[in-house]
Every structure is written in C-alpha cells, then in structure tokens.
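Every protein is a chain of amino acids, and every chain bends into a shape of its own. The protein below has been through that process, and both of its lines are reproduced in full.
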Amino acid sequence: MILWIFVFIMILSPQPDSNSQNTRGYYPEDWISYTNMRFVRSIASGFNNVYFGTTEGIMVYDINFEEWLDPMTESDGLPDHNIRMLAVEPDDSRVYVNTSSGIYMYETTFKEWSQTDVFPGHLVGDNLSLISNFQKYIPPVGYHAMSPNLIQDDKLRDYPVVAAARGENGDIWLGTWGLGVGRIDNYGIEIDLMNYGLYSSSIHTMLKKGEKFYFGGRNQSGAENALTTWERKENKWEYYESKYNDRFVSDQINDIEDTDKYIFMATDFGLVRMDHDGSGFKSYYQPRNFATDLILSLEYSKGELFIGTDNGMYVMDVKGDSIQFMGGQMVASAAIFDILAYKDDLWIGSDYGTVRFDSRANKFYRYSSAGGVLLAITFDVEADTKDGLWFATEDAVVWMNDRFEEQERFYVEAELDGYHPNRILVHERYLWVATDYGVYRYDRMKHYWKHFTTADGLIDNMVYDLILDGDYLWIATERGVTRYYWNNPVRGEDI
C-alpha cells in the first residue's frame, strides 16, 4: 500500500523538463556556436555518443545515427571552453570536463552544467595504446602516417595524434592537434579524417547560398587562416587556404558575394573568384586590375559586380571578365564599406558619407538629409522590407522612405550605448544591429530595444555580420559563429 502511494505521488509531482529554460529564460537549443575545434586534447566514448574535448569546446558525434550533433560551447552553458580532460559515464548520463577554471559535470538528461570537486579519473583509460603501431594505418590521399603518432600532410605539416578512444561499435577515434578528428572503422586500417567546425574562429563575413554557408574572416594574431564552407544537409565542412593555392591570392576576407556562376571574395590583397564547388580560383589585383589591393565590399546586379575598395569603386562585367574604374570625383578616393543595388541605382556607404550613383545620369550624389547624419561615415546600407532604405553611420541608424523622407532615426550614443554599428539586418518585425559589443534588436511594433551579449549566448561580443535564416539568426563574431533561435515557439515571443 505504501509503495502504491509513493508511485502515485511521483506521478502527480511535476517532473523536470529535459528542455527546461535556464536562468535567463533560454532553452539549450536557443544558442549554438561553431568555432575552431581542430585542436583536440581528449576523447571519451559513451554508449550513444563520442565526445571530443578541444581548446574551444566539445564536439559530439552520435554513434548510432553516424552524425555530428550540436557542439557544446559557452553559448549553451559550457562553463569553460578550454578542455584539458574529458570523461563520460558508460551510459552517457554524465559528462565530466577538467578545464583551466575547474571541474564541471553535465547532466545529459536535464542538459545542465554544474561544478564538482572530483574528476573521475577511473573513466579515463590509456587510450593511446590503441594506436601503438600507428604506421600500419592508412590516412587519406595527401596524408601520411608517421612515427611516433604523427599525421603529415602534403605540405609537410605535422599533426600529432594526442588522444584516442574505442567507440561502443568498435571504431577507433583519433584526436589530433590541428587536424581535428579521425576515425578507423572496426577491424579496418584506413583513417577517415572528419572536418568539423570553422578553420579559424574570427569570422567577418558570411554568405548563405541554399543549404551551403561560406565563412570568411581573418586571424588577428597571425595564426593560420582559411575560407570555411559548410554543406548543412550533409554536415560537410571544407577548408580553402590561400597560401597553398597560387590562384587564391588571399583568405583575409572582408565580403563574399554570389553571382550565380561564381562566388567572389573581397580580400585584403585583391578580388578572388571561386567556382561554386571550390574546384577553381582566379584572382584580380594591382597593378593590372586595381590601383589598390584592399577590397572592402561587393554587390552583384544584372551581370555586373560592383567592387568597393579603400580607394574608389570599380565594376566588373562578370561574363566578359573585365574590370573598369567607375570614376566620379565624389568617391574616387573614398573607402567604400558597402554597396547596395536598389531600383536601378547604387547606394554607397563610404568614409565620405552616403552616396547614390544614378545609373541613368551616370553621376554620383552625396546626401546630407536626416539631420546631417548621412554626411558621416556610413558602414552599411540595407533595403527595408516594405519601402525605403536603412543606413548605419557612425552617428546614427536611419530609415528613409523611397521619397527620401525620414521615417526613424536612432542615435548611436543613445540607443547603441555608443558602440560601433558594423552591420544591420532588416526584418518585418525587427531591426538587428551588429556592433562592437553584441547585437542590438529594435522591435518595430513595440518600439523598444534589446541588447544581446555573451551573457545571453553569443560566443563573443565583437560582432561583424548577420544572416537571417528563417527562425534563426546567424551571427559572425571574433570567436566564431553563433546561431540564435530567435523565433523559438516554445520560448514565446520574448523573454
């Protein structure tokens, strides 16, 4: 009788929700970040998943479905991204991490992290003994298995194998320092190298073409850099390094544009053209094509690619593969930060302010409306969802209709707390602004601002670019790319 009473009480008692909200009202899937996870320190294998501890978080691979799951970073609650050692209970119920700031435990049922005092060393075996005879394994074409426990690529770069583990299905998993993850099928000898995440974390620009993403940027510290592409449906990541490709002049990328036939990239050392499948490259640079090498912005319209540099504008006939200087005393020596093709004209954001190029008159016009804020440095120009244009300047964010009548104006000092507006994104309901300290969102119906930072789930507060992808907002930052589930129907309209 007592037993039945106890069961009845348990049934009536509220049970924890496996997708419960955190203290700020978010769910675990609301903030997911992708970073550079090529440097693996530790591997732990449970019954369902294999976990890879890296210098920038944790990669998770589903053994049964043979697919990568969302990574674990600070965005979804990981207390410290710098993983020294990793362990997991055999039934996957708990994951343990030893980090530079302490030891933490993850409850997989409740999706929550908590601090603990003891790291379960008994769950960590001498896994490198799995590959004691490493040279017997065969890596992909272009790579060589070297002794002791090194994988060498065709550029003679060495990648030490620093961790290994055997999965529940018998596969051997390898963790390398700089080359990511490798897998050896049960009873096999071939190493399958599996790219995952960004090659370099500092992302300044993004492009989404169908289900394929392009991530470009730079590493300020001088570390290795590359263009990263991601086929979302296949979860396939690829990297393109310029220093080993004579036709790819630079992977220090400021803007990416799709022209249907090619992908073009504005870089610090010229313009780069890439085939969509990554099979071919061509570069354009001074003195043959430009008077400068610093390309800042791109815009494609009606067969022409407009090219903004730090010293004027150019136009390319994409089919004819020819480039000409656009002239115009007004922008001849200006730094062109953004170009927008809008109703047969070009709208230009520059260090000379907001400029319009009238294609019919073939003339440039400078604008001083909106209380003079358009005379200031203009970083971005975007079309409104209904009527007119938005401008992000060093002084204000302004919305003008097609008759150039001001609709709304928000001063940087007042609404953005003085932070530099790098990019704006216009939605029917919201205006999103990428700044030097997080993302600001303006509710166009309720007329109020909200500020998102690392306290909410951003991987870093230095934000460069934004892409709207249905219910998700992709945010390019200095430490990676964050995907925000802004329209989560379970969470509700706002928090």
Q: What stands out?
A: The chain has a mean pLDDT of 92. The CA atoms of residues 159 and 388 lie 53 Å apart. The first helix runs from residue 2 to 12. The chain is about 5% helix and 45% strand.
